[in-house]
Amino acid sequence: MLQPRLALTRLHLPFRCLSSASSRSYSTAIHGKETPPSVESSASTFDPSIAFAPPPTRDDAGVLIRSYKPRTPGIRHLRRPINDHLWKGRPVQKLTFPKRGQSKGGRNNTGKVTVRHHGGGHKRRIRIVDFARTAPGPHLVERIEHDPGRSAHIALVRSQETQRVSYILAAEGMRAGDVVQSYMSGIPDDLWRSMGGVVDPGVLAARTAWRGNCLPLHMIPVGTLIFNVGLRPNKGGQLCRSAGTFATVIAKGSNTQAAQNEAQTEEGAEEKKPLSQREQQKQERIAQHITIRLQSGEVRLIHKDCCATVGVASNPNYQYRQLGKAGRSRWLNIRPTVRGLAMNAADHPHGGGRGKSKGNVHPKSPWGLPVCALQFMQHNPICDGVNIFSRRNLATRLVLSGRSTRLWLSPESVTRASVVEVTAKRVPVVALLSSLPLSLTQVRICYFCKY
């Protein structure tokens, strides 16, 4: 039997303290209240056949932010996410090392500032986080800890086979006592026997695609939320590692033979049209990769053997925090950001002058490069590369260096021969010219250079 939540709105304000019911948003049991098992008992009675964790979900119920009574000006605007489940003690000593001068001041070996707005900060120890998670077997989550070097939380896990401890990125909803497992080394023997020695994709996904488990991308079902995504096989995760970030698996590579059969049996085709060598190579490359969508809307092709963790990165309310005072920024190794308009003329192109005028100067960076002047963006670039990269201000840098990504031609002069003749003088490498339509008025050229 559940005890309903009692509303205190009808009670008079002076008599609310006499009520024994507390304001809560859930129902509680009157009799038979059970205490959750401790970490030690879970470790002693571990059963690998139990369900590991609930499926990955996003908590959209509300933002849990703690505010404080303004006893001092420094805490008047202080807002912090509510994370009462975090470990209050110190980290494991052998899994950390001290941060002694590693880019604390933003200087290089000559003493020049290479990264602005860095300096100071409280002393800290860097946590050694296992992003690859190649150790097989189930791991028990002992506790969730705060990492001062990142926005997401980390989990201390202990292997049930070797009893070794390590830090991993915690998924949203992961708590002490959960059991997670990595399948980067292959499918375990007990899972093979439970499926009868036959790989059923549905059964395999139901047994492995749980929150906090690390799997190769080809084992994750379409539509699953993932984080800590790797970019290369046999390497740790590099994408979606910040607090609350995730990616979505939207498609998997198609079969080359199926694509060839579809091309041969298309409508109106009297003769069989086998795939060309180039199209066949493209289909083979697509079959080896998984398509994911990032939160920015960018779509990338990642190799199917790269690692990924099922779920959403922990601490999703990190974006709603407010530090409240400038001193907390200095504690976090963040120096002030000064506007160029407030500087002298010798320090910034916008500096100097009388009053607050920037002197009729177009917006520029501190080094004199134009910013926000023109919109240099690559719309629908022609590229047969596997990964769809999105580099900031790439087109702007190419224009400033004399290598524009735009090439304007009149409609009547657009031919493959003219494109080859004109572009050979402007770019070092020209690719995919055979796939260019003849009716384009604006031709995009791909650059195969290392930036």
Automatic annotation (TrEMBL):
<keyword id="KW-0496">Mitochondrion</keyword>
<comment type="function">
    <text>Component of the mitochondrial ribosome (mitoribosome), a dedicated translation machinery responsible for the synthesis of mitochondrial genome-encoded proteins, including at least some of the essential transmembrane subunits of the mitochondrial respiratory chain. The mitoribosomes are attached to the mitochondrial inner membrane and translation products are cotranslationally integrated into the membrane.</text>
</comment>
<dbReference type="Pfam" id="PF03947">
    <property type="entry name" value="Ribosomal_L2_C"/>
</dbReference>
<feature type="domain" description="Large ribosomal subunit protein uL2 RNA-binding">
    <location>
        <begin position="106"/>
        <end position="182"/>
    </location>
</feature>
<feature type="compositionally biased region" description="Basic and acidic residues">
    <location>
        <begin position="270"/>
        <end position="284"/>
    </location>
</feature>
<dbReference type="GO" id="GO:0003723">
    <property type="term" value="F:RNA binding"/>
</dbReference>
<protein>
    <recommendedName>
        <fullName>Large ribosomal subunit protein uL2m</fullName>
    </recommendedName>
</protein>
<keyword id="KW-0687">Ribonucleoprotein</keyword>
<dbReference type="GO" id="GO:0003735">
    <property type="term" value="F:structural constituent of ribosome"/>
</dbReference>
<dbReference type="InterPro" id="IPR022666">
    <property type="entry name" value="Ribosomal_uL2_RNA-bd_dom"/>
</dbReference>
<dbReference type="InterPro" id="IPR002171">
    <property type="entry name" value="Ribosomal_uL2"/>
</dbReference>
<comment type="similarity">
    <text>Belongs to the universal ribosomal protein uL2 family.</text>
</comment>
<feature type="region of interest" description="Disordered">
    <location>
        <begin position="28"/>
        <end position="53"/>
    </location>
</feature>
<dbReference type="InterPro" id="IPR014726">
    <property type="entry name" value="Ribosomal_uL2_dom3"/>
</dbReference>
<dbReference type="InterPro" id="IPR012340">
    <property type="entry name" value="NA-bd_OB-fold"/>
</dbReference>
<dbReference type="GO" id="GO:0005762">
    <property type="term" value="C:mitochondrial large ribosomal subunit"/>
</dbReference>
<dbReference type="InterPro" id="IPR008991">
    <property type="entry name" value="Translation_prot_SH3-like_sf"/>
</dbReference>
<dbReference type="Pfam" id="PF00181">
    <property type="entry name" value="Ribosomal_L2_N"/>
</dbReference>
<feature type="region of interest" description="Disordered">
    <location>
        <begin position="96"/>
        <end position="120"/>
    </location>
</feature>
<feature type="region of interest" description="Disordered">
    <location>
        <begin position="257"/>
        <end position="284"/>
    </location>
</feature>
<keyword id="KW-0689">Ribosomal protein</keyword>
<dbReference type="InterPro" id="IPR022669">
    <property type="entry name" value="Ribosomal_uL2_C"/>
</dbReference>
<feature type="domain" description="Large ribosomal subunit protein uL2 C-terminal">
    <location>
        <begin position="209"/>
        <end position="370"/>
    </location>
</feature>
<dbReference type="GO" id="GO:0032543">
    <property type="term" value="P:mitochondrial translation"/>
</dbReference>
<dbReference type="InterPro" id="IPR014722">
    <property type="entry name" value="Rib_uL2_dom2"/>
</dbReference>
<feature type="compositionally biased region" description="Polar residues">
    <location>
        <begin position="38"/>
        <end position="47"/>
    </location>
</feature>
